[in-house]
Amino acid sequence: MHTLRFVTGNEGKVEEAREYLEGLATVEQVGYDYTEIQHDDLAAIARRGARESYDAIAAEDQEIDGVLVDDTGLFVDALDGFPGPYSAYVEGTVGVERVWELASAEENRRAHFRTVLAYADENGVEIFEGSVAGTLVEPRGEGGFGYDPIFAYNGQTLAEMTAAEKNAISHRGRALAAFADWYAERTEETADD
Protein backbone atom coordinates (compact mmCIF):
# COMPACT_ATOMS: atom_id res chain seq x y z
CA MET A 1 0.00 0.00 0.00
CA HIS A 2 1.18 3.53 -0.78
CA THR A 3 2.17 5.98 1.95
CA LEU A 4 1.22 9.64 1.65
CA ARG A 5 2.64 12.38 3.84
CA PHE A 6 0.13 15.04 4.92
CA VAL A 7 2.06 18.18 5.78
CA THR A 8 0.09 19.76 8.62
CA GLY A 9 0.23 20.41 12.32
CA ASN A 10 -3.48 19.53 12.63
CA GLU A 11 -4.12 15.90 13.62
CA GLY A 12 -7.84 16.37 12.83
CA LYS A 13 -7.02 16.96 9.16
CA VAL A 14 -4.91 13.81 9.11
CA GLU A 15 -7.70 11.72 10.68
CA GLU A 16 -10.16 13.02 8.10
CA ALA A 17 -7.73 12.15 5.29
CA ARG A 18 -7.27 8.64 6.72
CA GLU A 19 -11.04 8.08 6.59
CA TYR A 20 -11.28 9.09 2.94
CA LEU A 21 -8.15 7.20 1.86
CA GLU A 22 -8.73 4.00 3.84
CA GLY A 23 -7.74 1.05 1.71
CA LEU A 24 -5.97 3.27 -0.84
CA ALA A 25 -3.02 4.62 1.12
CA THR A 26 -1.55 5.03 4.56
CA VAL A 27 -1.53 8.68 5.63
CA GLU A 28 1.29 9.93 7.85
CA GLN A 29 1.44 13.37 9.42
CA VAL A 30 4.57 15.40 8.71
CA GLY A 31 5.42 18.67 10.44
CA TYR A 32 7.50 20.22 7.66
CA ASP A 33 7.39 24.05 7.77
CA TYR A 34 7.12 25.05 4.11
CA THR A 35 7.12 28.67 2.96
CA GLU A 36 3.53 29.87 2.78
CA ILE A 37 3.43 32.48 0.05
CA GLN A 38 1.00 35.39 0.26
CA HIS A 39 -1.39 35.15 -2.66
CA ASP A 40 -5.04 35.85 -3.48
CA ASP A 41 -5.46 32.30 -4.82
CA LEU A 42 -5.66 29.31 -2.46
CA ALA A 43 -4.54 26.97 -5.26
CA ALA A 44 -1.31 28.92 -5.79
CA ILE A 45 -0.54 28.74 -2.06
CA ALA A 46 -1.27 25.00 -1.79
CA ARG A 47 0.56 24.18 -5.04
CA ARG A 48 3.72 25.99 -3.89
CA GLY A 49 3.58 24.37 -0.44
CA ALA A 50 3.11 20.88 -1.88
CA ARG A 51 5.96 21.25 -4.38
CA GLU A 52 8.38 22.58 -1.76
CA SER A 53 7.33 19.95 0.78
CA TYR A 54 7.67 17.07 -1.68
CA ASP A 55 11.12 18.21 -2.84
CA ALA A 56 12.40 18.58 0.74
CA ILE A 57 10.93 15.31 2.02
CA ALA A 58 11.98 13.33 -1.08
CA ALA A 59 15.56 14.55 -0.61
CA GLU A 60 15.55 12.74 2.76
CA ASP A 61 13.31 9.77 1.86
CA GLN A 62 13.66 8.20 -1.58
CA GLU A 63 10.68 5.90 -0.89
CA ILE A 64 8.17 8.74 -0.71
CA ASP A 65 4.97 8.19 -2.70
CA GLY A 66 3.49 11.67 -2.45
CA VAL A 67 2.72 14.67 -0.29
CA LEU A 68 -0.57 16.38 0.56
CA VAL A 69 -0.88 20.04 1.54
CA ASP A 70 -4.10 21.96 1.96
CA ASP A 71 -5.05 25.58 2.26
CA THR A 72 -8.46 26.75 3.41
CA GLY A 73 -10.24 30.06 3.49
CA LEU A 74 -13.50 31.53 4.72
CA PHE A 75 -15.05 33.75 2.06
CA VAL A 76 -17.73 36.19 3.26
CA ASP A 77 -19.98 37.43 0.44
CA ALA A 78 -20.76 40.87 1.91
CA LEU A 79 -17.07 41.49 2.62
CA ASP A 80 -16.02 40.78 -1.00
CA GLY A 81 -14.61 37.39 -0.02
CA PHE A 82 -12.65 38.64 3.00
CA PRO A 83 -10.79 37.06 4.76
CA GLY A 84 -10.38 34.43 2.00
CA PRO A 85 -6.79 33.18 1.62
CA TYR A 86 -5.78 35.35 4.58
CA SER A 87 -8.15 33.54 6.97
CA ALA A 88 -5.48 32.06 9.25
CA TYR A 89 -3.67 35.40 9.51
CA VAL A 90 -6.91 37.26 10.22
CA GLU A 91 -7.95 34.68 12.82
CA GLY A 92 -4.59 35.01 14.56
CA THR A 93 -4.43 38.81 14.51
CA VAL A 94 -8.00 40.13 14.48
CA GLY A 95 -9.84 37.10 15.84
CA VAL A 96 -12.98 35.18 14.92
CA GLU A 97 -15.19 37.41 17.08
CA ARG A 98 -14.11 40.52 15.12
CA VAL A 99 -14.89 38.83 11.80
CA TRP A 100 -18.35 38.07 13.22
CA GLU A 101 -18.73 41.73 14.26
CA LEU A 102 -17.91 42.85 10.71
CA ALA A 103 -20.35 40.35 9.19
CA SER A 104 -23.11 41.06 11.73
CA ALA A 105 -23.34 44.64 10.45
CA GLU A 106 -24.25 43.29 6.99
CA GLU A 107 -27.68 42.20 5.80
CA ASN A 108 -26.15 39.41 3.69
CA ARG A 109 -24.29 36.99 5.95
CA ARG A 110 -23.73 34.26 3.39
CA ALA A 111 -20.26 32.76 3.29
CA HIS A 112 -18.46 29.65 2.18
CA PHE A 113 -15.46 27.66 3.27
CA ARG A 114 -13.18 26.53 0.47
CA THR A 115 -10.31 24.05 0.68
CA VAL A 116 -7.71 23.41 -1.97
CA LEU A 117 -5.84 20.13 -1.54
CA ALA A 118 -2.56 19.83 -3.43
CA TYR A 119 -0.92 16.48 -4.10
CA ALA A 120 2.72 16.47 -5.20
CA ASP A 121 4.94 13.63 -6.37
CA GLU A 122 7.75 13.17 -8.89
CA ASN A 123 5.29 13.79 -11.74
CA GLY A 124 4.10 17.23 -10.58
CA VAL A 125 1.23 18.72 -8.59
CA GLU A 126 -2.49 18.00 -8.86
CA ILE A 127 -5.17 20.24 -7.31
CA PHE A 128 -8.51 19.18 -5.76
CA GLU A 129 -11.12 21.57 -4.38
CA GLY A 130 -14.09 21.40 -2.05
CA SER A 131 -16.43 24.01 -0.65
CA VAL A 132 -19.44 24.29 1.62
CA ALA A 133 -21.86 27.22 1.74
CA GLY A 134 -23.40 28.55 4.93
CA THR A 135 -24.26 31.62 6.95
CA LEU A 136 -22.31 33.53 9.55
CA VAL A 137 -23.98 33.64 12.98
CA GLU A 138 -23.14 34.79 16.50
CA PRO A 139 -20.51 32.41 17.97
CA ARG A 140 -21.86 29.23 19.50
CA GLY A 141 -20.72 25.67 20.13
CA GLU A 142 -17.74 24.10 21.85
CA GLY A 143 -16.28 21.86 19.13
CA GLY A 144 -14.20 22.39 16.05
CA PHE A 145 -11.60 25.11 15.60
CA GLY A 146 -11.02 28.39 13.81
CA TYR A 147 -14.19 29.91 12.36
CA ASP A 148 -16.37 26.89 13.20
CA PRO A 149 -18.31 28.73 15.98
CA ILE A 150 -19.57 31.43 13.56
CA PHE A 151 -20.22 29.29 10.45
CA ALA A 152 -23.68 27.70 10.31
CA TYR A 153 -24.77 24.99 7.90
CA ASN A 154 -28.48 24.10 7.96
CA GLY A 155 -28.92 26.06 11.19
CA GLN A 156 -26.13 24.39 13.15
CA THR A 157 -22.61 25.80 13.53
CA LEU A 158 -19.68 23.56 12.68
CA ALA A 159 -18.65 23.95 16.34
CA GLU A 160 -22.00 22.42 17.40
CA MET A 161 -21.54 19.36 15.18
CA THR A 162 -19.83 16.12 16.07
CA ALA A 163 -16.66 15.38 14.15
CA ALA A 164 -18.56 12.84 12.04
CA GLU A 165 -21.35 15.34 11.21
CA LYS A 166 -18.82 18.01 10.28
CA ASN A 167 -16.70 15.63 8.18
CA ALA A 168 -19.81 14.49 6.28
CA ILE A 169 -20.38 18.01 4.87
CA SER A 170 -16.94 19.59 5.17
CA HIS A 171 -15.12 21.49 2.46
CA ARG A 172 -11.96 19.49 3.22
CA GLY A 173 -13.94 16.25 3.01
CA ARG A 174 -15.20 17.20 -0.43
CA ALA A 175 -11.66 17.94 -1.61
CA LEU A 176 -10.44 14.66 -0.08
CA ALA A 177 -13.26 12.73 -1.78
CA ALA A 178 -12.27 14.17 -5.17
CA PHE A 179 -8.63 13.31 -4.47
CA ALA A 180 -9.51 9.78 -3.32
CA ASP A 181 -11.43 9.12 -6.56
CA TRP A 182 -8.53 10.41 -8.65
CA TYR A 183 -5.93 8.54 -6.61
CA ALA A 184 -7.87 5.25 -6.79
CA GLU A 185 -8.12 5.55 -10.57
CA ARG A 186 -4.45 6.48 -10.87
CA THR A 187 -3.20 3.61 -8.72
CA GLU A 188 -5.47 1.20 -10.62
CA GLU A 189 -3.98 2.38 -13.93
CA THR A 190 -0.43 2.06 -12.52
CA ALA A 191 -1.18 -1.48 -11.33
CA ASP A 192 -2.42 -2.42 -14.83
CA ASP A 193 0.82 -1.23 -16.48
UniProtKB/TrEMBL annotation:
Keyword Hydrolase: yes
One Pfam family in the UniProt entry: Ham1p_like
One annotated GO biological process: nucleoside triphosphate catabolic process
Sample GO molecular function, one term: nucleoside triphosphate diphosphatase activity
Family: Belongs to the HAM1 NTPase family.
CDD domains assigned: HAM1
GO terms under cellular component: cytoplasm
Name of the coding gene: rdgB
Keywords for this protein: Hydrolase
Source organism per UniProt: Natronosalvus hydrolyticus
Stated name of the protein: RdgB/HAM1 family non-canonical purine NTP pyrophosphatase
InterPro entries: ITPase-like_fam, RdgB/HAM1
